[in-house]
Design goal:
single chain; mainly beta; about 40% strand; elongated; signal; glycoprotein; transmembrane helix; cell-cell adhesion mediator activity
């Protein structure tokens, strides 16, 4: 029977003898802990941090010997290795007798182990070593025993002389070529080959059996050969034997080869029985003969074949079952088929088992007086017998002791003492084998120690379970006591418990538990202190809620928590249905932003519970929310029309899925079957809790219904429409509304009404009955029929009163009786003009007009009122001519029909006017009254058109202005008022009596203050409206600050912020290439107000030093490195290249052509009107320049040229710098004056420069246009020069 070997639990690997240093004991202690899947009662475990100087260990077999079969002395090798402290001694037994390998001169033993092998010459036969061996490893603490192994000796297999085999068969017959290799306890591997050492090809017709024979289901002529050779390979003997070749001759039959039914070749018959062991593999053969070649199928008669442990080989001729289990016992069947029939073979498989462990005892350490329980349970078929040994000697041979009992494989040892230290063997045995396991009991005494450090600080949060560690170790187990502030009543608190390992546990800890605790070991001077600090627990203040989200939308959860500041910053971990979420950068599904979780593009699979965990180093808090997918509802179904009546019907339906948002309302819609072009219309709304409604219907209408569901998300698609439902006809319920007269032409009466909806016709042949009669003179009604409005009656006179009414009718009858309304025939224009029209001048801009009412009979219609027509023919100061006969403005004022006077305001002072009055009705105006002419008095002038401020020094300011566009009289002069802003200083007044003066210089101003200026025109009627400006004088210039650099390859861009209210000054940039050894170079003079300059001509990849100088003093310096690679070798200048010379020549030629075209265009200018010239000047001034925009600049020279142009505007935007005309000559010398100007909002962008020749204010045209202009404060250095 095979011998089952069992490796001892926890005894893997060879370990050196245990050293005495305590640090080196740590791996050993870890190993001991790893050997304890199930703790025995009273076992102790030495912690890794226990300090010990010496520790012994019982022997443990680390390498077990194995059974072997040897064919020569050189194959002898039995291994046996063990660990222990002190190192164990080894001995062997053979067939139960002591065997000493060292006494055999042909064997040698490995030092420090029990392993022996053949090294010398063996005297005597090999059979002397045949037998069963056991290895023993022993030291002072016990003896460990190895598994029993068997050493089998055999001679090397050899071939016996045999005769050559020749077989001759007819085609179609079955043949077996036998191998019959020499016997060995180690079965050989069989190879069928030809003389060229090529394997014989196997297939479903030619099969090799497990017995090594070659089976032919039927032979063919191609099977004929003389070299069928069986080769037996003995792996353990390292030998291959080739048998005599077999000759097979296949003859051809004279007749047709007959087909044959299948027959079993191996195994024979219809039934066979197999015995196998649990855990092994089983192979079932089904080798058959027949013609044509049969097919093979495998089934299990009493169950299903295991797909994972069964496999088919040799073209289904062999079924292999791996890792046999008890469930594999039963019946299997091989079914063989060909065209001639079928045959089956049944295999009965019985499964038994060698012993195997179900529970193994564990090696442990014990303190004196403890109770030891070693459980040893094994199973097998048949059931094995279990026996115990101590140090290799059966327990039955020991002196019986009342402290030790053995029952059902369990050994119990009470009140252990030091002499109980030993290695115990548990052995299980049945007919299939034996297994053995070694377990030691080590009774040890160790001094007590506290394993935790003194003065440890413990941090917990409120409500947690605080554990103060005071782990002790010793054998016997030490007794631990705890105290707090010298109080002996600590354990009286029900929340405080002393754990068996010595730790102190405080449940539901609070701030009152904070303080110093002392742990002591009884009967020793060992103690440690522990400091407990309790912090506020983490609380979630704003938990995530339940979110109702539509598909495709974004959901945002917020999780705000309050954390004790002593704790580490919290980490927020989000989970969905218990699974952690991670930010997905590729899909952007989950995004974490502070306390927020953002779920993008929410879909159905995103539904679930979302939990936020706020995690600190001491505690965590969690709260959950959810995402519920909501959507608009599905449409209702199963619409049914029931209980039909003349005027109503009941409609019912079944609601569709509301998608987690309840239906609020159902909308019932209908479609008129006779008017489908009107589409579906809403008929009624029903509460979302109802699924039926009674609907009122209109007669003579074909209805088709549908229902729409509405929830908080939106509307569903409409339901499928119901069947068509038609109502019977009836007489009309109503008459047309808004019956009226809309007569527009004289001598006609137009009767019209609101046409009724087809749905209220209530029946066929619908029409309208129209009735009319005069209010005065007619006693009977006239009537006629019409199918649509209007109905026209002619020859009825102008504006005559009629009573009219319209009644609805159809085939079933007429609508209800109705009351008539009054209407009139068509109107005509009035015949007469108002009489006695008069005008009174109230002031320079208002008049009162009066007239007498007209006779209503002359109105020939409804009197709607009067119209006053007012025409203005210019100023009184204008020359009377063609312009005076043409009005420049006209005003039409309507009054009510009862008014007889009206005051008109808003007239222009000092102007010529005419007026007349007409009466009007809906047909139009009558003839005008007699025209009245009048003139308005002189008035106060309007504001001057522009006001510009120029400052040349810090104490002077020059004001430039243009006269008012509306002088409203004869301009006498100007009034200037000014004062300091944000100050209580008095208002200064300057009176200018000459209306031709357009500028004024103020002196002795405060250079540190801003002023507000008010300038008004004056006439004999008084002072006019002011134009307002704010500004300040300029200060002495200073070099720029805050210089920024942008470095390129061959240039550097310099930018700075010009000083506010400071005159421009000139400065220069000096630069030095630090790499070429050259001299300092200097830029052109720069202006501080320009804000930008580009320094060109630098060398790429070079270091430069820059100095900024003002008045021969350096006010800022820095170093830069240009971009690009430095020039390593001198290269030919591109200026000498042919392509560059050609390019420059082309540019020069192009510039010449452009200059010629400009001169030609200017020469063809011709004559043009003053008005066109003024408009051109206005256009030329409207050239905006982007302020503070990098890269858009003009040169200083171009700015100066524009300043010299008469058409250049001089006003500035609010808080911008302006350039004074009077100082342009000294601009390049840095003395240009700039000032800040603030405009009134009502006058922003409404200014123009005065013309070169200012007209006399007395004859100034008041129709001058306003010209909006803006300027900028930037004066850049680099740009094209503008004409």
């Amino acid at each position: 029977m095979p011998h089952t070997q069992q490796h001892q639990v926890g005894s893997r690997g060879r370990r050196p003898p245990l050293l005495l240093h305590p640090i080196l004991l740590l791996p050993l202690f870890s190993l001991l802990l790893s050997h304890a899947p199930q703790l025995s009662q009273g076992a102790i475990h030495i912690p890794s941090n226990y300090q010990i100087n010496e520790f012994k260990k019982p022997p443990v077999i680390t390498t077990q010997p194995e059974s072997i079969t040897v064919f020569g002395a050189e194959d002898i090798l039995l291994t046996c290795e063990a660990s222990g402290n002190p190192p164990p001694d080894f001995r062997w037994t053979k067939d139960g007798e002591e065997f000493i390998p060292a006494n055999d001169p042909g064997l040698s033993v490995s030092p420090g182990s029990g392993t022996f092998m053949k090294t010398g010459v063996v005297s005597g036969p090999m059979s002397q070593y045949k037998g069963k061996y056991s290895c023993y490893a022993e030291n002072a603490l016990g003896t460990a025993v190895s598994n029993e192994v068997q050493l089998i000796t055999e001679n090397t297999p050899a071939l016996q002389k045999e005769q050559k085999v020749k077989k001759k068969v007819e085609e179609g017959e079955s043949v077996v070529l036998k191998c019959n290799p020499p016997f060995s306890t180690v079965p050989p591997v069989i190879h069928w080959m030809d003389e060229r050492m090529n394997h014989i090809e196997l297939n479903d017709r030619v099969t090799q059996g497990r017995d090594g024979n070659l089976y032919f289901s039927h032979v063919t002529v191609d099977d004929t050969r003389i070299d069928y050779t069986c080769n037996a390979q003995y792996l353990s003997a390292r030998t291959i034997l080739s048998k005599e070749p077999i000759t097979l001759t296949v003859t051809t039959s004279n007749s047709v080869v007959r087909s044959r039914r299948p027959q079993m070749m191996r195994p024979s018959g219809t039934h066979s029985t197999y015995h196998t062991l649990r855990g092994q593999s089983l192979e079932l053969e089904c080798i058959v003969q027949g013609l044509p070649t049969p097919t093979v199928q495998w089934v299990r008669k009493d169950g299903q074949l295991s797909e994972s442990r069964t496999s088919r080989h040799l073209f289904d001729r062999l079924l292999r079952i791996s890792n046999i289990s008890d469930s594999d016992g039963g019946e299997y069947q091989c079914s063989v088929n060909n065209s001639q029939g079928k045959v089956t073979h049944t295999y009965t498989v019985s499964v038994e088992a060698a012993p195997y462990w179900t529970k193994e005892p564990v090696s442990q350490l014990y303190a004196p007086g403890e109770t030891v329980r070693l459980d040893c349970q094994a199973d097998g078929i048949p059931s094995p017998a279990v026996a115990w040994s101590i140090n290799g000697k059966p327990i039955t041979g020991k002196d019986p002791t009342p402290r030790r009992t053995v029952r059902d494989g369990t050994l119990i040892l009470r009140d252990v003492v030091f002499t109980d230290t030993a290695v115990y063997q548990c052995q299980a045995h049945n007919k299939h084998g034996t297994i053995l396991v070694n377990t030691y009991i080590f009774v040890i005494e160790l001094p007590p120690q506290i394993l935790n450090a003194d003065g440890q600080k413990y941090n917990f949060t409120e409500g947690q379970k605080a554990v103060l560690q005071c782990q002790t170790f010793g054998s016997p187990r030490p007794k631990v006591t705890w105290e707090r502030n010298s109080s002996a009543s600590l354990l009286a608190e029900p929340r405080v418990n002393l754990l068996t390992n010595g730790n102190l546990q405080i449940t539901n800890v609070s701030h009152g538990d904070e303080g110093l605790y002392t742990c002591s070991v009884s009967n020793t001077n060992l103690s440690i202190n522990a400091d407990l600090d309790v912090m506020n627990r983490t609380v979630i203040l704003s938990p995530p809620g339940s979110l109702l989200v539509q598909p495709g939308k974004t959901a945002i959860f917020t999780c705000l928590a309050q954390v004790d500041p002593k704790l580490t910053p919290p980490h927020i971990q989000w989970k969905r249905s218990g699974q952690e979420l991670f930010q997905s950068y590729a899909e952007d599904k989950y995004t974490f932003e502070g306390p927020d979780l953002i779920v993008a593009n929410v879909q159905t699979e995103d539904e679930g519970v979302y939990t936020c965990e706020v995690i600190t180093n001491l505690d965590r808090a969690e709260a959950s929310g959810s995402i519920i997918i909501v959507d608009r509802p599905d449409p209702p179904t199963q619409l049914q029309v029931s209980d039909p009546k003349d005027r109503n019907v009941t409609l019912s339906w079944t609601a569709g899925d509301d998608h987690n948002s309840p239906v609020i309302v159902f909308v019932v819609e209908f479609e008129d079957g006779d008017s489908k072009e009107r589409g579906w219309e809403e008929l009624k709304r029903v509460s979302g809790t109802h699924e039926s409604v009674t609907i009122s219907l209109q007669p003579y209408v074909s209805y088709r219904f549908r229902v729409i569901s509405i929830n908080n998300i939106g509307k569903s698609d409409p339901s499928m429409p119901s069947d068509l439902h038609s109502t019977p006809p009836q007489a009309p319920d109503n008459n047309p509304e808004n019956v009226r007269s809309e007569s527009t032409d004289p001598d006609t009466l137009v009767i019209t009404w609101e046409e009724m909806d087809r749905r209220v016709f209530n029946g066929p042949e619908f029409h309208y009955k129209v009735f009319w009669k005069r209010v005065v003179g007619d006693t009977t009604w006239y009537s006629n029929v019409s199918t649509e409005p209007p109905y026209i009656v002619t020859e009825v006179g102008n504006f005559s009163a009629f009573q009219i009414k319209v009644q609805a009718a159809n085939q079933k009858g007429e609508g209800p009786e109705l009351d008539p309304v009054t209407g009139y025939s068509g109107e005509d224009i009035p015949l007469k003009a108002p009489q006695n029209v008069a005008m009174v001048l109230l002031n320079s801009s208002a008049i009162r007009v009066t007239w007498e009412p007209v006779n209503e009979k002359t109105v020939r219609g409804h009197l709607l009122g009067y119209k006053i027509h007012l025409l203005r023919f210019g100023s009184r100061g204008h020359h009377q001519g063609r312009r005076a006969r043409e009005p420049d403005t006209s005003v039409e004022v309507e009054t009510g029909p009862k008014e007889e006077k009206r005051v008109l305001g808003g007239l222009r002072p000092y102007s010529h006017y005419t007026l007349n009055v007409t009466v009007f009705n809906s047909k139009g105006e009558g003839p005008p009254s007699k025209t009245l002419s009048f003139e308005t008095d002189e008035g106060a002038p309007g504001p001057p058109m522009s006001l510009r401020l120029d400052s040349h020094t810090g104490t002077e300011m020059t004001l430039h202005w243009t006269p008012p566009a509306q002088p409203n009289g004869v301009l006498k002069g100007y009034l200037l008022q000014y004062q300091i802003i944000k100050s209580d200083s008095p208002m200064q007044v300057e009176t200018i009596d000459d209306h031709k003066v357009t500028h004024l210089t103020l002196k002795q101003l405060d250079p540190h203050s801003r002023y507000r200026f008010y300038l008004r025109g004056r006439t004999s009627a008084g002072d006019g409206e002011p134009i307002t400006r704010e500004g300040a004088t300029t200060l002495d210039g200073a070099p720029p600050s805050n210089i920024s650099l942008y470095v390129g390859e061959k240039s550097v861009n310099l930018s700075w912020v010009p000083g506010q209210r400071q005159r421009s000054v000139s400065f220069q940039v000096q630069y030095l290439n630090k790499q070429d050894g050259g001299k300092w170079k200097q830029s052109e003079k720069l202006n501080s107000s320009a804000s930008f300059y580009q320094l060109k001509g630098l060398t790429p990849g070079s270091q430069y030093r820059l100095r900024f100088t003002f008045s021969n003093n350096t006010f800022w310096e820095t170093e830069i490195t240009t971009k690009g690679a430095g020039v390593m070798d001198m290269q030919t200048g591109f200026a000498t290249q042919g392509w560059f010379i050609g390019l420059v020549s082309a540019i020069v030629l192009l510039l010449l052509v452009l200059l010629i075209l400009c001169f030609i265009k200017r020469g063809k200018g011709g004559k043009y009107s003053v008005k066109d010239k003024e408009e051109g000047q206005v256009d030329s001034e409207a050239r905006p320049m982007k302020d503070e925009t990098f890269g858009e600049y003009r040169s200083l020279e171009s700015d100066n040229e524009e300043k010299r142009t008469a058409s250049q505007p001089s006003l500035c935007d609010e808080s911008k710098l302006c350039i004074s005309d009077d100082n342009l000559d000294g601009y390049n010398n840095g003395s240009i004056a700039v000032t800040e100007v603030t405009m009134e909002e009502s006058l922003v962008s409404q200014y123009s420069r005065p013309s070169e020749a200012t007209p006399d204010p007395g004859t100034l045209q008041d129709s001058s246009p306003l010209n909006p202009n803006t300027t900028t404060n930037g004066l850049p250095n680099s740009a094209a020069i503008l004409d």
